[in-house]
Amino acid sequence: MAKKQKPTLATVWLDGCSGCHMSFLDIDEALITLAEKATLVYSPLVDNKEFPRMVDVTLIEGAVSTDEDVAKLRKVRSHTKTLVALGDCAVTGNVPSMRNPFTIAEVTDRAYIENATHNQQFPHLTLPKLLPWVKPIHAWVDVDVFIPGCPPTAKTILYVLTELVEGRVPDLSDKSRFG
Amino acid sequence: MAKKIVIDPVTRIEGHARITIHMNDKNEVDDAQFHVTQFRGFEKLSEGRPFREMPSLMARICGICPVSHLVASAKACDELLAVRIPPTAARLREVVNLGQLVQSHALSFFHLSSPDLLLGMDSDPARRNIIGVLEEYPDLARAGIRLRQFGQQIIERLAGKRIHPAWIVPGGVSAPLSREALQQIQSEIPEMIEMTQKVLEWFRPTLGNFRDEIRTFASEPTMWMGLVTPQNTLAHYDGMLKLVAADGTVVNPAIPPASYQSFIGEAVEPYSFLKTPYYLPMGYPEGVYRVGPLARLNIVDSCGTPLADAEHARFKELPLEERHSSFHYHYTRLIEILYGIERISELLNDPEITSTHVFANAQANSYEGVGISEAPRGTLLHHYRIDDNGLIIWANLIIATGNNNLAMNRGVTQVAKAYVKGKDVKEGMLNRVEAVIRTFDPCLSCSTHAVGQMPMQVEIYDAGGDMVRELRR
Question: Is residue B374 domain-resident?
Answer without folding.
Answer: no
